[in-house]
Amino acid sequence: MQVPFVDLSWQYNQIRDELLKRVDAIGRSGIFILGPNVEEFEAKMANFLGVRRVVGVGNGSDALWLPLKALGIGPGDEVITAGNSFIASAWAIAAAGATPVLADVGCDMNISADSVRDLITTNTRAVVPVHLTGNPAAMDELISLADEHELLVVEDAAQAIGARYKGRMVGSLGVAASFSMHPLKNLGVLGDGGFLATDSDLLADDVRLLRNHGLSDRDTAMIWGYNSRLDEIQAAVALEKLSYLDEWNGMVREIAERYTEALSHLVQVPVVANSNESVFHNYIVRTDDRDALRSHLTACGVDTRIHYPVPITDQPCYLKDTRTVKNVLPNVLHDNERILSLPIYPGLPESSLSYVISAVYSFFEAKSTSSF
Ligand SMILES: *Cc1c(COP(=O)(O)O)cnc(C)c1O
Prior knowledge:
The chain has 372 residues and is α/β, with parallel strands linked by helices. The chain has 13 helices and 14 strands.
């Protein structure tokens, strides 16, 4: 049996009929960028997240750096984020002109207030917690630390759409939050897309200017802006998928529960606080036998990934940046050798799920017999 790491066609097939009607209407309308689908999406997503404003942009990376920029963060400022995140979290800080400062993570693989506290200097302006794998970071502790030091909190919620922290929707917890609609994310479109969520009208209006060359109307550029617009077709895909999101996140959560039940005596399963509702963008197990387990799974036809094989602190761009403090992150480095992402997605057939579990079993069975 072959189990792919992800199967995006399953989702497409669910929305296909309704989507094609929308795409046809878009083609006929001649409005392809920042039109009625984008507006409808922004309104519906704001409602879904329980925030005042959503602003659609070109991708999740822009959804993070544009608000940092709009908040006045720039050269000389330091912004703290998680050392085990995708490169885009640190890039967004650098793109705003500020210095990325990387913090260590706790056993939940998320940035913790303790790891942030030691890194705060007089130049620190903001903290960007990443809800890695869709599991919310410990926001109460982070927000009270940030309040104490007058820091802004901007959530990198790229992987966490629909996740809840103590009953509250992720993306509504800081001054702003960024989301990605990259095809692999839990609400993925047929290309690039992203959006910002915020309760601040001022911030939302500033990002609206920044995303479209600073234009307040067709002919008036109020500020130097950028081109980071969301197009109508991607907004239409997002709208169609939004109606399935809770259902799909529920399916993914059930798969995660199955893995956790079956595997917790063999590997370190994801650490999710009781008060968290994770959306399991990834299901990451940790084991000292990572490389051997991965080879075994590959031989069994089970496709796995490593999120992420090279920590940000080891990336050439980070090492070359003379401003960055080259601090050592013991937990990030320790996890880095041990993490393995198993297949998880809506539409993963029951037979494939049991097969993955049995393939993990057969690895540890063979290992226990061979060691005697
Ligand atoms: C995917 C991702 C981003 C960037 O989103 P893009 O849409 O690819 O630009 C940022 N942060 C995290 C944690 C991500 O996983």
